[in-house]
Design brief:
The chain is built from seven helices and seven strands. The protein has helices spanning 14-29, 42-53, 83-92, 104-118, 136-147, 155-158, 165-173; strands spanning 2-6, 33-36, 57-63, 76-80, 96-99, 126-129, 160-162. The protein starts with a strand and ends in an 8-residue tail after the last helix.
């Protein structure tokens, strides 16, 4: 499975890097491909290192103005002309999406992916990995949007909130409605 991961390129505290490293290990050991922003810095590097060290493939999609930070050892690297093209490439090359901790860029990517899903433009599983409660406020906001009628479909059909890497991977490998056994 090609799993797109949106996440920060910042150097972060161990409370964020340890779970990211664990998720990357699960992804790599299970033979999945990481589709990510292509950067070889910060949390993006931590995840790419973990996936590669555990046998997974790396497909990066960088952008022209960040090409100097692109990972040289990726299995494949695409350089998009702008951020909109980058997001389209990331989604187009993935079977599922995981949103990890990040700043405004990650939030922009997450909201666009969710908006596209809301309008039926893709049906890929979307997981928000809520490491260390980072997205507790966002989860509450989404619950309010649902309760007050701002979402045209149930929140559970839009995304899955995972509090740890194992539950994120379990959901990705057998999302609700999937035929198992």
């Amino acid at each position: 499975m090609n799993i797109c991961v949106f996440l920060s390129a910042a150097d972060l505290d161990e409370r964020y890097t340890a779970p990211a490293r664990h998720f990357a290990e699960l992804l790599g050991k299970r033979g999945h491909t990481l589709v990510w922003g292509g950067s070889d810095v910060g949390l993006m590097k931590v995840v790419a290192d973990g996936v590669q060290e555990h046998g997974g493939r790396l497909v990066g999609v960088s952008v022209t103005f960040l090409a100097d930070k692109a990972r040289a050892g990726a299995d494949e690297m695409v350089i998009a002309g702008d951020l909109a093209e980058r997001k389209a490439e990331l989604l187009g090359r993935s079977d599922a999406v995981v949103i990890m901790v990040g700043g405004t860029g990650t939030l922009d990517e997450a909201t666009e992916i969710l908006e596209l899903k809301k309008h039926g433009l893709h049906a890929k599983p979307v997981v928000l990995l809520n490491t260390a409660g980072y997205y507790d406020g966002l989860r509450e906001q989404f619950r309010r949007m649902e309760a007050e009628g701002f979402l045209p479909l149930p929140l559970t059909e839009l995304m899955f909130f995972a509090d740890d890497p194992e539950s994120a991977m379990t959901y990705l490998e057998a999302p609700p409605g999937a035929v198992t056994g």
